[in-house]
Amino acid sequence: MVTVARMLSVQENGGCDGMNVLFLRVVDANGAPLDGIIVRVRWAGGQEEIVSGSKGPGRAEFPLYGAYWAQVVRDVSGRAYTSEETRRIDSVNPDYADLIQGGYCADEADCRERDATRQLCYGHYSWEVEFRRSW
């Protein structure tokens, strides 16, 4: 189950010159990290698989260059798992609600104005996603 799918705040991401990274975490039902879980990251032009534990206990990272979706598909031994897929996570054109939540704009009107005048952080948004084992 996806328990977290949020864009990092402007402060967490280092401002508009910040990162464009998907920070993944896979945990068991009690919140303990799970290594060796394969997460498929897909986008309009393809997909790639990454393994939890590659960036610390239960963690993995993936560079973002647009809109993506992620889903647990199996473990390293080949045992198939299924999880729900994340909502769209976008490092270029995130939803205004995510921009407001992350402190990139104050409200929808502010987002629209910043968008129209190219004052947003296009391409420099990072996301945190957590999968909690329910499979």
Widest sheet: strand order? 1-8-2-5
- The CATH class is Mainly Beta
**Mean pLDDT across all amino acids:** 96
Give the terminus-to-terminus CA distance.
8 Å
Structural class: mainly beta
Helix and strand pattern:
EEEEEEEHHE
Topology of helices and strands:
Blueprint lengths: L1 E6 L13 E7 L9 E7 L2 E6 L7 E5 L3 E9 L13 E2 L5 H6 L6 H9 L10 E6 L3
Parallel strand pairs: 2-8
Antiparallel strand pairs: 1-8, 2-5, 3-4, 3-6, 6-7
Write a short abstract of this structure:
With 135 residues, this protein is mainly β. Helix content is 11%, strand content 36%.
Structure in words:
This protein is mainly β and 135 residues long. The chain has a single domain (2-130), classed as Immunoglobulin-like (Sandwich). The chain is 11% helix and 36% strand. The chain has two helices and eight strands, in the order βββββββααβ. It has helices spanning 96-101, 108-116, and strands at 2-7, 21-27, 37-43, 46-51, 59-63, 67-75, 89-90, 127-132. A four-stranded mixed sheet has the order 1-8-2-5. Strand 3 and strand 4 (46-51) form a beta hairpin. The longest helix is centred in the C-terminal third of the chain and has 9 residues, at 108-116. It is elongated, with a radius of gyration of 15 Å. The mean pLDDT is 96.
